[in-house]
Amino acid sequence: MKLHVPVNQENFIFKTSDNVANEIVRFSEKVKKKTKSSTLVIPFITDLHLGLMPKNLKNLKKASYEHVENLVNVCRLIDHDLIIQNGDLNDGSSLELSDFWEGNEMYKRKMASIKKPVVNLRGNHDDNSLGDKYENNDLKKVATYSELKNFFFR
Which ranges form a coiled coil (predicted)? Predict the structure, then answer.
């Protein structure tokens, strides 16, 4: 039986539980073993749904924020070239625009600490323009493509 040994989190930007820290280190060591000097390393994250706040979903919001922090911690430990965020960063079902923009601001701030390029692709929940319908949400668009683009590149 393997004994649980807490990981030194000094290279982490965001502190986390010992279990998650151990998994981050284990994963980053696997990446390092498989990486050669000519390897292109691209961490990939998708479907964070950061603005999700209706009803009892506050735990999902907390979890999605922690996913961003875990990605930042992994990227501190591995040599990578860029990051791809493959869409649904937001959730068009947000009942409050403040939740939507709060999630975007947090993501932008935390990802900036990585200091590598981040490619953000748009998903069907990012502006709700692709026809998703939610109860109690009459917002046809939470944000337009132009608003999101201007937000990330201002």
Answer: none
Task: Give CA–CA dist 124/153, Å, rounded.
Answer: 20
- Report pTM: 0.73
Question: According to DSSP H, which parts of the chain are helical?
Answer: 18-34, 58-77, 97-112, 145-152
- How far is residue 19's CA from residue 72's CA, in Å, rounded to a whole number? 17
Q: Tell me what percent of the chain is helix, strand and coil, each rounded to the nearest 5.
A: 40, 5, 55
| Nearest partner of 11 among 73, 54, 57, judged by Cα | 73
Task: Kindly indicate whether the domain formed by 40-152 is annotated with CATH number 3.60.21.10.
Answer: yes
**CB-based contacts of 107: which residues, under 8 Å, 6+ apart?**
48, 50, 68, 89
User: In the chain, what are the domain boundaries?
Assistant: 40-152
* pLDDT tens track, the chain, 154 positions: 455 566 888 888 888 888 889 999 999 999 999 998 888 999 988 888 776 554 455 566 677 788 889 999 999 899 899 999 888 887 766 556 677 777 788 888 998 888 888 888 877 777 655 444 554 444 444 566 677 677 766 5
